[in-house]
Amino acid sequence: MLDFPRWKVLAIWLTIAVGILLAIPSLLPKSAADHYPRFLPHSRISLGLDLAGGSQLLEEADLADAAKHRLTAMEENVRTELRRDPRIDTGDISLSGGQVSFMVRNPAQLDAAVERMRTLTAPVGLSGVRSWDVQAFDGNRVVMSPTPQGTAELLKNAMTDARDVVRRRIDPSGTREITVVNQGAQRILVQVPGVDNPEALKKLIGQTARLEFKLVDLNADPAQVAQGRAPPGSQILPMVDGGFIAVQRRVMVSGDQLIDAKQAFDQQSGRPSVSITFNAAGAKRFGRATQENTGKPFAIILDDKVLSAPNINEPILGGQAQISGNFTVESANALAVSLKSGQLPVKLNVVEERTVSPDLGADSIRKGAIASIVSVVAVIIFMLVTYGRFGVYATIALIVNAFLILGIMALFNATLTLPGIAGFILTIGAAVDANVLINERIREELRRGRRILDAIETGYHEARRAIFDANLTHVISATLMIYFGSGPVRGFAVVLLIGVVTSFFTAVFFTRMLVAQWARRTRPRELHI
Predict the structure, then answer these.
(1) Is the pLDDT of residue 410 over 80?
(2) Of 142, 189, 85, which is closest to residue 487 (Cα–Cα)?
(3) For 307-353, how does the pLDDT look when each residue is reduced to its tens digit (9 = 90+)?
(4) What secondary structure, in 3-state letters, does 12-78 show?
(5) Do 186 and 61 contact (CB within 8 A), yes or no?
(6) Average pLDDT for residues 131-141, to the nearest whole number?
(7) What is the pTM of this model?
(8) Left (φ > 0), alpha (ψ -120 to 50) or beta: where does 304 sit?
(9) Nearest 5°: phi and psi at 20?
(10) What is the four-CA torsion angle of 27, 32, 35, 40, rounded to 10 degrees?
(11) In 3D, which of 381, 496, 481 has the Cα closest to residue 431?
C-alpha cells in the first residue's frame, strides 16, 4: 500500500493534467476559447440537435426515377447479353409501359433469347420468385416485366444503401452525432445538429451523384436533336450551360468504379475542377474506351445533365481523369464529397424540412447544469459528513472524473445531447457508488480488527473486484447501444461508456494514490471513516 510506484504516480497525474487541459476549451465561452494558448489543445465538445439546434430533413425515394433507371440498366444488360457469341439479332429495344421488350429477327433463336434474359434476373430471397418475369409472345417477341417482389427487394436494398451514403456525405469522419435512419419503406430521416441552413444540407444530400461517361453521337441531326428526337441507340440530354446534345446510350465508364475524388484546379484554365481516380477495373475500361475513340468527343454526365463534352485528344491511361464544368471551389468540393461517398442508388426528394431552434437546448443546458451542481453539492456534503478525510478524497475524485469525461469527449469531438447530460449525471452517481463501496469495505475490515494499513489495502483490493464487475455490465450495455443506436441514444451511450472508464480510474487508482501518499506521510494510529 505504501509502496505506490513513482512511475504510476506520474502516469496518473499526467493523465489528469491532459484531461483537464482538454476539457477547459469546452468550459470557456467561445470568445475566451479563441484566446486559449495555441500550443494547447483547442478541441471542443459539440452540442447535439436538441441542445444547439440544427436542421432536420425527411427524404423520400423517387420511385418513378428508380423505375426509370432500373429499366435503363436492364436495357444495357440486355444489349450486352444479345451481343454475346453466338449473337442474337434483334430489332430496337423498347422501354415503354415499364417493360423491356424486343423482337428477335430469327424466330429459331427465340428460346435462346428467353433463356439468356432469364440469366439476367435474380431470385428474390426464398420466395421462389425472380426479380423480372421473362415471357415470349407472338413467336418472335420477348418481354421482361419487373415483378412486385423484385421491386420491393430492390427498394429495400436501395434505401439501406442510400442511408449509408447520406451518412458518409454528412459525416465522413464518423465522429458527429447525426441521426440518419430509415422511416418506413421509402423514407429517410436526417437530423444534423449545429446546421441552421437546411439549403446547404439539401444540396449535399439531394445530389444523386450518378456520374457517367458516354460518347457524343456525331451522326445525330441537329434539327432532330433540337426537337428532342435521338437516333436509335442514343438519347438527348440537357447541357448545364444550355441547349441539348445527343449521346450514345452505352456507358463507357460509370462513377461506381471510382475510388477517390477531390477538388482541384484545371491546369489550362485555372478554374475549379474535380480530380477523380478509378479502381483497377474502371481504369482499364476507361483507358480502352479512350484508346478506341481518340479524336472523338465524349460527354461527362452528372445526374442526367452534361457537364462538358471535350474531345479525347489522347488515350487517358493510369485511371485518373478530371471533371471540368462551371464550378466554384465550393461546388467542386461538394461534388467531390458526393462522388467519394458514392452515388445514391435512388433519387431522394425532400418532403419535410425543419430548423430546430437552440432556445429549448439553452433552457435544457441551464436546467441540466443546475441539476448537476445541486446533485454534486449534495453528494459532496454526504461524503464529507459520512467519511471525513476519505470523503474529501472522494470529492476530489468526483471533480477530476467530471474533467476527464469532458476532456475525452472533446478529444474525440463527441457530441453532447440532452440524453448525454443524463448519462453524465448518471456516471457521477456511479463514481460516488464506487467510493462508497471502497470506504464501506475499509470500515468492515477495521471492525474485524485489522490494522489500519491492512484494512485500507484489503478494502481497496476487495472492492476493486466488485467495482470492475459492476462496470463491466455497464460497458457491455453502452457498447451495444453505440453499435445499434443512433443520435441521442448513441450520445447517451458514449457519455456512459466514457464515464464508466473514468470513474473506475478515479475511484480505484486516483483515490488509492492519494490515500497511499497520506498514509506513508503520516503513519496514522487512528482512522475515522
Answers:
(1) yes
(2) 189
(3) 888 888 778 787 888 877 777 887 788 778 777 777 788 888 888 88
(4) HHHHHHHHHHHHHHHHCCHHHHCCCCCCCCCCCCEECHHHHCEEEEEEEECHHHHHHHHHHHHHHHH
(5) yes
(6) 89
(7) 0.57
(8) left
(9) -65, -45
(10) 0
(11) 496
pLDDT tier at 404, thresholds 50, 70, 90 = very high
Contacts of 427 (CB under 8 A, 6+ apart): 401, 405, 495, 496, 498, 499, 500, 502, 503
Whole-number Cα distances in Å, 501 to 157, 392, 397, 474, 475: 38, 21, 13, 10, 8
pLDDT of amino acid 14: 94
Cα-trace Rg, the chain: 33
The three grid cell numbers given for residue 525, joined into one nine-digit string? 494510529
**pLDDT confidence band for 82 (50 / 70 / 90):** confident
3-state secondary structure 302-346: ECCEEEECCECCCCCCCCEEEECCCCCHHHHHHHHHHHHHCCCCC
| Residue 207 grid coordinates | 445530389
Rounded-to-integer distance, Cα 118 and Cα 128, Å: 14
> Nearest-CA neighbor of 43 among 19, 79, 76?
19
The predicted structure's pLDDT at residue 510: 92
116, 119, 121, 126 alpha-carbon torsion, rounded to 10°: 140
- Per DSSP bridges, beta strands 320-323 and 272-278 are antiparallel
Rounded CA separation 171/20 (Å): 27
Contact (CB, 8 A) for 357 and 343:
no
Q: Average pLDDT for residues 132-140, to the nearest whole number?
A: 89
Look up residue 240 and give its DSSP letter. Answer: T
Which amino acid type is present at position 322?
A: Q
Amino acid at the residue 263: Q
- Is-contact 519 442, C-beta < 8 A? no
